[in-house]
Design brief:
Elements (H helix, E strand, L loop, with lengths): L1 H66 L6 H23 L1
Length: 97
């Protein structure tokens, strides 16, 4: 019976050591994944900022092309300019409040 208890205790200790080893391994993997996630978040934010800048550049380019007198679509140019004038009028109205 004493051997049986010793065997159970040694088996328990071995399983506990293995469990602690697996815990440390998972903990280390979790730390690595958190670092990777932080890197990916930084990359995402950089790409998002670049996207916003490019969208702004595209809008400016569209405006510049719309104002270009060589364009054949005069109607679209007039609509675009009217929209820009309305936006300016709104801004002026907000400043007057």
């Amino acid at each position: 019976m004493a051997n049986s208890n010793k065997d159970l205790i040694s088996s328990f200790e071995a399983k506990l050591r293995h469990l602690l080893f697996l815990y440390d391994k998972v903990k280390e993997e979790n730390i690595n994944l958190q670092k990777l996630l932080a890197q990916e978040k930084r990359k995402y934010l950089e790409l998002e900022n670049k996207h916003r800048c490019l969208e702004g550049d595209y809008t400016h380019l569209k405006t510049a092309l719309t104002i270009n007198p060589n364009r054949k679509d005069i109607k679209e140019t007039k609509e675009r300019l009217s929209k820009l004038v309305r936006e300016v009028d709104k801004c002026i109205a907000l400043l007057n409040i």
